[in-house]
Amino acid sequence: xxxxxxxxxxxxxxxxxxxxxxxxxxxxxxxxxxxxxxxxxxxxxxxxxxxxxxxxxxxxxxxxxxxxxxxxxxxxxxxxxxxxxxxxxxxxxxxxxxxxxxxxxxxxxxxxxxxxxxxxxxxxxxxxxxxxxxxxxxxxxxxxxxxxxxxxxxxxxxxxxxxxxxxxxxxxxxxxxxxxxxxxxxxxxxxxxxxxxxxxxxxxxxxxxxxxxxxxxxxxxxxxxxxxxxxxxxxxxxxxxxxxxxxxxxxxxxxxxxxxxxxxxxxxxxxxxxxxxxxxxxxxxxxxxxxxxxxxxxxxxxxxxxxxxxxxxxxxxxxxxxxxxxxxxxxxxxxxxx
Length: 338
Fold this sequence. Notes:
Radius of gyration: 25 Å
Shape: globular
Largest sheet: none
Order of helices and strands: HHHHHHHHHHHHHHHH
Oligomer: single chain
Strand content: under 5%
Number of helices: 16
């Protein structure tokens, strides 16, 4: 064996050893602690509120929209073309419908409040999925994103902050054993669930951006004009303030495409994540205002984006808010003196 071969073998072994050390270090970091707990809690609260909104929005018309004798015929719901599982398909009884419907609303509330979070996450997914498939005509896209996210959320520790579970743990002074195998496996599943939800958001933006790039109206900058003129979702008293300004329409059209294509890459740099999330929230707030029929879709996307920022981002944001409030309070006596 030549000296060059020996030197190459030593370098290869050193590189392999370095990679192995890095992998063990990363595994220790992900299993020894749980990240994005604040974002997970905020996402849970919003998803629970959105689920509760589904039940309360049309509460007084629930039998007409969702019931066994409702507007969506029972034969379409239980026919051979609809093979999706739903609790509502188990019986055509009005009593059964009322029982399942109200149970789903209560579970959505408990999920939002964070009571027995793991169990209520599973139950909320089952009941909300059942409701959505009872009448698919009422869906708007946000429901699909919610259903997928809730599957991943089963593995996410979303009840460690801002929840009844966390309050009960503090009262009983119960602290998790960070060194136990159960905690470490749970931490790995928690981070896997976080990654899956983030990849879901990235996929939604990337696919949407790629489709837009291929559209002629998105290419010439007029797509937003036609979107704002859609009568089904439009808000006439507001939308005309935008679509009457050609330069603004073109700029917002291109900005939407660029942001959706760049979103996944912005997340690669940790310091840019707050910027990406802020832009995403502003985008969907604009959709919620200008396309009022897509409120649940916009709310769902905002909820999922809150998961992207780490706990340190929220801590810095909270510090800035406290400082700003403190400065405002300190200025009040001087203002009063004047």
